[in-house]
Design goal:
The chain has a single domain, classed as Maltoporin, Chain A. Strand 18 (about 415-430) and strand 19 (about 435-445) form a beta hairpin. It contains 6 helices and 31 strands. The longest helix is centred in the N-terminal third of the chain and has 13 residues, at about 1-15. It is globular. It has helices at about 1-15, 50-60, 85-95, 100-105, 170-175, 450-455; strands at about 80-85, 110-115, 120-125, 135, 160-165, 180-185, 195-205, 205-215, 220-235, 250-260, 265-280, 295-315, 320-335, 340-355, 360-375, 385-395, 400-415, 415-430, 435-445, 470-485, 485-500, 500-505, 510-515, 520-535, 535-550, 555-560, 565-575, 580-590, 605-615, 620-625, 665-675. The two termini are about 45 Å apart. It has about 675 residues and is mainly beta. It has a 22-stranded antiparallel β-barrel. A 4-stranded mixed beta sheet has the order 1-5-6-4. The protein has a two-stranded antiparallel sheet with strand order 2-3.
């Protein structure tokens, strides 16, 4: 009856919202599609003003910023899924401290815990490894070359205006780090008047978040904004085995920005970022792992970054675009008795010219990216990758219904030589149908930081040998239909990865990173159905993934671990702008193959239930959110700790289910200024 009492308390809180009447639809499934013209029932057509029609149309126009040509999302041959506006606000009150919830509820995207000791996670897209996903902010690699380790959990969603998700290889646009896809975070820009927001949140697992965002014009053409956050979580040992199931941390973030817009189309955007975090996991004080010794695992992080995005018109040619960024991240790790002190760096620059002539749009440019790692403890793993590149992109509107696109990039990689990355896409829109097709090739520059090494450190890894670049060929067909309040979409996708890297055990407690002989194959489909009307949105989704790889012998195939073949979701949301929202969600995760787990070879399927409520009175909002109402927790079935340490150094098994169990969070959001 514990579940009933928890649910009842929350239902009492959110039921206060029911006095309001719904006004408009909101996407609640973790992704937005091409906007739809909603029919407004109960209004006399003669009374509808031109102003209301213009307002409705402006709300529906979503411009894709991550593909360089600035098209509307429904006109883009490359499928881009956009999370925008109030959906971001919804996810921000569910998990104010990071963007994991924001991206995890997008179909085909899965946030996978890579280090149960510290809670680190990465983003897997359509069954591909998380190291292949590129995480960008305003089209810049401000968080480094990928989305691995703890970066995903150190980004609050406070200041986000739009999130764009591109699935499949996008090396043709972004180079080596985008073999599996891109998550692009776009920040809010200062408007014509002052606005600010403060959000305070607390959880039943003794976590607290305080975030703030403020933006103001400083002249006729310029504006300033500042985002800051303080986040805290106390370590939690939920099953009493002396090991933290939830790592403790204290984190501070700050990001000032300036935006300048010229009178003739020029603009400059500058951003600076700073973050510091101390994270503690492993054994509790005076407790031990099964061999009788304590094993404290910690990570102290400092990150500093800077970015620039600028553009200016070129007479009779097009627009000159400049992008540049720099990032430095210092880590101090502790894995039991081993302390690792290291530094990650990333430098990026790009110059391009974009233009159009009739039905043809084009972009061409040059880019440079440098990724470096330096360890004071294990200097044998130091690397510095430098990759100058040239790229081009052309889109042709062949007819009113057909658009063709081609892009290509050549990277001159300092370690892995010349790499050619093409991509072909097509968009066909007959009537209410939308059909997209895409084929691409990309590459990834291997580093020591596969999931197990991120979790256990470098102490047991042999120095890297002569590795080859990992390459992939990806393809997808996307079929969508929209009619009134109904939307449907079916995506078929496939990927072949050659030279994928994995850890192999060698003599004793040592491992080495090798290229796999053979091809890793991923086949799958996504299905999504949505109904939106009068403030109500109901979304159902299903994802099928069949991922296999060569086994250790090279003559047989095995399932890729931690990749559920079946996942599904059902989300219901009601919202009235300025009044509040109520949402209920259910997500099913099917059986996963497990690797090197002494307790089982296949995981149990599980169901995740959640409920969200928010009341808005003027500029004050009160919210409550309950996650994992069924209190699903992996340690209810098996221990998290292994009986003995793995050859790679890990003391825990892989996380195949939630580790934190039921969590209730709630708080207040205050807005100032603005409309």
């Amino acid at each position: 009856m514990i579940l009933d009492s928890r649910t009842s308390l929350l239902l009492v809180a959110v039921s206060l919202l029911t006095f309001s009447h719904p006004a408009h639809a909101q996407d609640a499934a973790g992704q937005n599609w091409s906007p739809i013209h909603d029919e407004h029932e109960g209004h006399d057509e003669a009374e509808e003003s031109e102003e209301s029609e213009e307002s409705e149309e402006s709300e529906e126009v979503i411009i894709v910023q991550g593909t360089r040509l600035g098209r509307r999302v429904q006109d883009e041959p490359l499928r881009v899924e956009v999370i925008a506006g109030e959906e971001i606000e919804e996810k921000a009150i569910m998990r104010p401290g990071n963007i994991a919830m924001l991206v995890n509820e997008t179909g085909g995207v899965r946030v996978q815990v890579t280090s149960p000791a510290l809670g680190a996670a990465n983003i897997r897209i359509q069954g591909l490894e998380g190291r292949y996903t590129q995480l960008l902010a305003d089209n810049l690699p401000l968080y480094g070359g990928g989305a691995g380790s703890l970066g995903l959990l150190q980004i609050p969603p406070t200041d986000l205006a739009q999130v764009e998700v591109i699935k499949g290889s996008v090396s043709a646009l972004y180079g080596a780090s985008a073999l599996g896809g891109v998550i692009n975070l776009f920040s809010k820009r200062p408007g014509n008047e002052f606005e600010a927001e403060v959000l305070a949140n607390a959880t039943t697992r003794n976590g607290q978040d305080l975030t703030a965002y403020a933006a103001s014009p400083v002249s006729g053409n310029a504006g300033l904004s500042l985002t800051a956050g303080a986040h805290r979580q106390s370590g939690q040992d939920l099953d009493g085995d002396g090991w933290y199931d939830m790592a403790g941390y204290d984190r501070l973030t700050a990001r000032p920005r300036i935006q300048w817009n010229g009178d003739e189309g020029s603009s400059v955007y500058l951003t600076l970022g700073a973050m510091t975090e101390n994270r503690v996991g492993g054994t509790l004080p005076h407790r031990t792992v099964p061999d009788g010794t304590p094993f404290v695992q910690t990570q102290d992080t400092e990150r500093f970054d800077a970015g620039l995005v600028a553009e200016t018109p070129l007479a009779e040619i097009g627009t000159l675009n400049l992008r540049a960024s720099a990032m430095r991240q210092n880590h101090l790790h502790r894995f039991g008795n081993v302390v690792e002190d290291d530094r990650h760096t990333n430098l990026f620059g790009e110059a391009s010219v974009a233009g159009s002539s009739g039905a043809t749009s084009w972009v061409g440019g040059v880019a440079f990216q440098s990724d470096g790692f330096a360890s004071e403890t294990f200097p044998a793993f130091d690397y510095s990758y430098e990759a100058p590149a040239i790229f081009a992109q052309v889109e042709q509107e062949a007819s009113l219904d057909l658009t063709l696109a081609a892009s290509a990039r050549v990277d001159f990689h300092s370690e892995f030589g010349t790499q050619f990355s093409p991509r072909l896409s097509a968009l066909y829109r007959p009537g209410n149908w939308t059909i997209r097709g895409s084929f691409s090739r990309g590459f990834f520059a291997p580093t020591p930081f596969v999931d197990a090494i991120e979790a256990s450190g470098l102490s047991r890894l042999e120095p890297l040998g002569d590795l080859e670049a990992e390459t992939a060929r990806t393809a997808s067909i996307d079929i969508g239909y929209a009619d009134g309040p109904w939307e449907a979409n079916l995506t078929l996708f496939r990927a072949n990865i050659d030279n994928a890297t994995r850890l192999d055990e060698i003599a004793g407690d040592r491992v080495q990173l090798v290229n796999v002989d053979g091809t890793t194959r991923v086949r799958g489909s996504e299905l999504l159905l949505r109904f939106r009307q009068d403030g109500f949105t109901i979304t159902g989704s299903y994802v099928f993934v069949d991922a296999t790889e060569p086994d250790a012998t090279g003559f047989a195939r095995r399932k890729v671990s931690l990749t559920p073949k079946h996942t599904a979701g059902l989300v219901g949301m009601w919202e009235e702008h300025g009044k509040g929202r109520i949402g209920i969600e259910a997500y099913y995760t099917g059986v996963q193959t497990l690797e090197d787990n002494p307790y089982r070879t296949r995981s149990r399927p599980y169901l995740h239930l959640g409920i969200l409520g928010e009341i808005t009175i003027g500029k004050v909002s009160l919210f409550a959110n309950a996650e994992n109402l069924l209190d699903v927790r992996q340690t209810k079935y098996d221990p998290l700790l292994r009986r003995q340490r793995a050859p790679s150094g890990e003391w825990t098994v892989d996380a195949w289910a939630p580790l934190e169990g039921f969590i209730l969070n709630g708080g207040i959001r205050l807005r100032f200024g603005g409309h």
